[in-house]
Write a structure and sequence with these properties.
Blueprint: E1 6-7, H1 13-24, H2 35-42, E2 54-59, E3 62-75, E4 81-92, H3 99-108, E5 113-117, H4 121-126, E6 133-144, H5 147-153, H6 159-169, H7 176-179, E7 182-187, H8 195-199, E8 206-208, H9 212-218, E9 225-233, E10 236-246, E11 249-257, H10 262-277, E12 284-289, H11 292-300, E13 304-314, E14 326-327
Parallel strand pairs: 4-5, 8-14, 11-12
Antiparallel strand pairs: 1-2, 2-3, 3-4, 3-8, 5-13, 6-12, 6-13, 7-9, 9-10, 10-11
The structure holds coenzyme A.
Length: 337
């Protein structure tokens, strides 16, 4: 018999990890199956979601489907806020057809809107059939810092030589004149000094709201070496960024500055690049950008577009009709950890 959907509890994490390893064919020693990561992702309290952010469907006491949620609040240019979710670690036992979609639909009902950035080929096939529509693309940009080191530290495969050549011919530009007015300071935790920036996050584009609790939650991600920075312009706090390092790669998980001027964004990404470059182990930086102004700022810093992925939205009440583009970051999903 198939039981009701229930929230995942701490005691379920080993069984959930095994289930994900089996369905996704992950390496059982890899980080996806690490119960510490699952605990942080789904059970560490977040003010924007009550209780567990992971749900399972069981049959005869065995997990047969799983889906996690990552909550996001859209801050619309009108000033209105709207709750949304994106699903993570969606998996189902193939011996019970449709059980995955059944669970997904239940989760879609938990917020007024849902979104998908990219997703596996199967997800891209399924979501348009259950009410999602494509509303644009999310681009991933990268910057080469140490292509030779990346060549040496990553396993040698056919693509390694092409990667190295691309790295040598597309070096990142550290443009002092771009980043000069901006100073970055590393912090171990974000405090009230950032609150005015978070409070005044109203933009002419839609942003994903952040609270101090969100940023400090992200700093605790157990899989990455997390680094938080404040950005200052003329001694005033003007923004922040968070970077997660995984071996040879750094990921810009979140960035916000109190400006709509492309030159300020160029300076901010210049400061990000300088801060990350100081770590001699980092070979490459990965960033997500969904707004033309951010793409322009990245390109002027020598970042190149690594891939584009479709962006789907489920918005039955059409509340997001005029909301796009939305400034999604890697933090708005689990593509960064
Ligand atoms: C995605 C997933 C959870 C869906 O679970 P499910 O609802 O139980 O899956 P089903 O096998 O019953 O497929 C549901 C529908 O998707 C279709 N589908 C399944 N696999 C597909 C694939 N690889 N490509 C395209 N369509 C596919 C099925 O034909 C079915 O369509 P139908 O309703 O018209 O018959 C499950 O396929 C899975 O665990 N996949 C591996 C993990 C994964 O890639 N997750 C997505 C991460 S973003």
């Amino acid at each position: 018999m198939i039981a009701a959907i229930r929230p995942t509890e701490r005691k379920d994490l080993p069984a959930l990890a095994n289930f994900l390893v089996r369905v996704y064919k992950f390496d059982s020693t890899g980080h996806h199956a690490d119960t510490k990561l699952l605990e942080w992702k789904y059970l560490c309290p977040r003010p924007s979601w009550k209780g567990s952010r992971s749900y399972v469907l069981e049959k005869d006491g065995r997990i047969v489907a799983h889906c996690g949620v990552c909550p996001v609040t859209f801050q619309l240019p009108s000033g209105d806020a709207l709750e949304s979710i994106t699903m993570t670690d969606w998996a189902a036992d193939s011996s019970i057809p449709g059980v995955g979609v059944m669970l997904y639909r239940k989760l879609m009902a938990m917020a007024p809107t849902s979104f998908v950035i990219g997703g596996a080929p199967v997800t891209r096939q399924i979501v348009p059939r259950i009410g999602f529509r494509q509303v644009g693309e999310a681009a991933t940009y990268s910057a080469w810092l140490r292509p030779w080191r990346e060549f040496l530290v990553r396993p040698l495969v056919g693509r390694s030589f092409a990667r190295l050549l691309h790295g040598w011919t597309h070096p990142v530009r550290i443009r002092e004149e771009l980043s000069r007015p901006w100073v970055y300071t590393r912090v171990t935790e974000f405090d009230d000094s950032l609150q005015p920036i978070l409070n005044h996050a109203k933009r002419s584009w839609t942003t994903c709201q952040r609270t101090l609790a969100d940023l400090n939650y992200l700093l605790k991600c157990p899989h990455l070496e997390m680094m938080g920075f404040l950005l200052q312009r003329q001694s005033e706090i003007a923004g922040y960024f968070l970077v997660g390092k995984s071996e040879w790669e750094a990921r810009l998980l979140d960035i916000f500055i109190d400006s709509e001027d492309v030159n300020d964004w160029k300076s901010a990404y210049g400061a990000v690049t300088k801060a990350i470059q100081r770590d001699p182990e980092v070979c490459r930086i990965r960033v997500q950008a969904t707004l033309p102004i951010l793409r322009q700022a990245l390109i002027s810093n020598g970042y190149w577009c690594q891939c584009r992925e479709p962006l789907f939205i489920y918005d039955p009440s059409r509340a997001l009709e005029r909301a796009f583009p939305v400034a999604f970051q890697l933090f708005d999903g689990d593509a960064g950890y």
